[in-house]
Amino acid sequence: MKSGDFNNDGISDLAVTIETPYYGINMLVGNANKSFQTQIMTQLSYIRGFMASGDFNHDSNLDLVAPDGGLSVLLGTGNGSFQNLVSYATDYFIIVVCTADFNNDGKLDLAISKWRCSSYCVSVLLGNGDGTFQPEVNYSSSSNLNYMISDDFNNDGKKDLVIVCDGNRSVNILLGNGNGTFMTPKLIVTADNSEFVISGDFNHDGNLDLAAAHIVPCVIGVLLGYGNGHFSNESLYSTETVTNSMITGDFNMDGNLDFAVSYINTNEMGLFIGNAVVSNLKAEFN
């Protein structure tokens, strides 16, 4: 699931992967009243894992990259639909994709994780700025990855990676060097039940924070960022439901970040605006 303004109307939309009745992406176009319009559907031959979004060809429209065993690049038209699907084959099954400008050349790049890779690969594909990418460069991690995000967590102008390892479900940070390479991973959360992680400035201090979804118990752990790549201890908030995806956005346009989650083993989503979870978070951070 990815949020963004895919139809250029100034309101956040949701792109959601589906597996029935076919593999594909459903675009839920957002309304100003916090509801969503009729779905725009894009069918794929296969999809499994976590997408990335960004303007990969510099046409001011949001595009998507979806893991379909390899990679499928879907160029946005600016109305919530996509065209010119381009596929990339890889040597291992891809489950996580995230995007950022890792080498500071003004073009969006991709970081991907490969499932059951013999060397536990994290790979970077540098973008050409036209919707295509250079051959992947492989890096090793201590474990297969369950999830991965990118942002500048130490305020040095270089994009970093935060990863959730599959083996021990810990959360780690890899500080970026600004040339497409990364420093040695550093442990952030030692808990063995982390599933997903998102970032945002939840307390309006100008530093990026983290929210990690845990599965036993079903909680969201919030870690406030210090702006130097280090974080506070977790503050835990019960969700009472196991999630298999989580995103953040200002869905009710009140200036504070909200959470949207999808639930494991169901076809349901939850939009947490002004309920107990998000209200508690806002009270804590304000």
TrEMBL record:
Matching Pfam families: FG-GAP_3 (PF13517)
Keywords noted in UniProt: Signal
Protein name (Swiss-Prot/TrEMBL): VCBS repeat-containing protein
